[in-house]
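Quick one - first record:
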Amino acid sequence: MLFVDYSSAFNTIIPSLLTTKLEDLGLHTSLCDWISNFLTDRPQSVRVGNCASSTLTLSTGAPQGCVLSPLLYSLYTYDCTAASSSTIIVKFADDTVVMGLISDNDERAYLEEIKHLENWCQEKNLLLNVSKTKELIVDCSKKQERHYQPVRISGTTVERVDSFRYLGVHISQDLSWSRHTNSLAKKARQRLYHLRRLRDYTCTIESILTGNITVWFGNSTKQDRQALQRVVRSAERITHTELPDLQTIYYKRCQTKARRIVKDPTHPNNRLFSLLSHAEKHQQTLSADYRIHGGETLTSLAKPNRLVPSRTSRQKAPVRPA
């Protein structure tokens, strides 16, 4: 397998050539013209801190970071296909792999495919980065170790490696996943630091923000909720961790509180709730698990305020603290 790397792949797209290929693929002329207009005469500058360079107008390549660029590049290189039945070319945007099946020590088709790719790149104005291009040989034969010819591109020998990371997955020459799993474990251990910080947040910050939240959050104003949520967002920036918002915490605690009331026949508010029947649960898939006496459905996810007894309910039954 040859893992091919291109130098500034997206910057080498020629709009006029891309437009021709898009028309050959059957795209409408107006869409091709729109894409051509999008890629040509693009003003571009570089900003470092408060300093910005002068503006330069570009009419080649596709913008970096644009969601359309990988798709345009894939269409631009759609005609890069294998010339032999014993080789295949796998592409994902600008990540390209040449794979060849070598039988009876015959490497000609594999080496010719690489030469064909090199010539194709020269025709399409694509520059191969030989220093980052790597070769990986998978040999499952239990016989004597074989020797394979080195791959050369533009007179430079391609480095042969025993493992390569392709699209986030480490592929080893023995096709084992030990290196990949070790990499995942190492990366996960590094993230444990954020988990420890999250635990500190839960104990020191979240416990303050959510104290008795089922009592007051439902009737708080939008401005009050936003003020509290800003504290959560600040904690996210500090811990580099996505934290549950207060609305979600409120919903979950309302549900938990309702279940406790239903399961506790001695609770003063127990008679205000009743379980939905099995048939009703199937008929109303979006409804909650409980119903308030009087015919109203308690929807904790949609209307959690109903968990707090109304004035009429408070007159009928005393409310015991949580």
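second record:
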Amino acid sequence: MIMGKTAVMTGAAGRIGSGAVKKMAEAGINVAMITHNPGPAAKICQECEGFPGKVVAVTNEGGDHAAIQKTFDQFGSVDIVIMNHGGPDHPMDLLDVEPEELDKKFAHQVTMTFRTLKTAIPFLEQSGGGDIILTSSKGAFDGDNSFPFVSSVVNGAVISMTQYLANELAAKNIKVNCIAKGHMQADFLHDGETLDLTLPGPEEFGEAVMDVLNGETSGDTVLLGK
């Protein structure tokens, strides 16, 4: 029974992330978007008015603990944590990649994820357990070299983190799974760009999140798209 549960989510204010926010709210899950983009987040909150689940935007300017504590205080639990943050990836020739780019991506995609989870896990425990969903890429999942090298290598660590945490947290009634995104619709459009509607978008990402939440497995990485 997921109605009445509360989710905190990073990377919720983009087009793709908003699909998960809306699907969860439609299912009666309260959603706190941990964000530094108040404009897009406010629009998503407005679009979700009247849904069974309440959607709010919580700034992360005061740090992860303050944002998650505020969510816990407002809704009485934190049952779901979704880590969907990530920056743009720029394809380049393998030999043009500088080691510093790996360091920067690792800090953003892996270290930041761990820092947030380290803060969130005690709240999940206090709520009786729950779900963690991480996001990775198809390049990390199967070595598809149509995805950038830096993103694929770093996101491989996210898949490893998923498997390790699933084993570590099973005794605490916390499931941990991952969604590896293939080629997707653009998260943010620049002037003159159009959407490729043949690719998975917000709707499909939201459905993938709900499938994971409604499932019973832990430690899995689910591939979304090609």
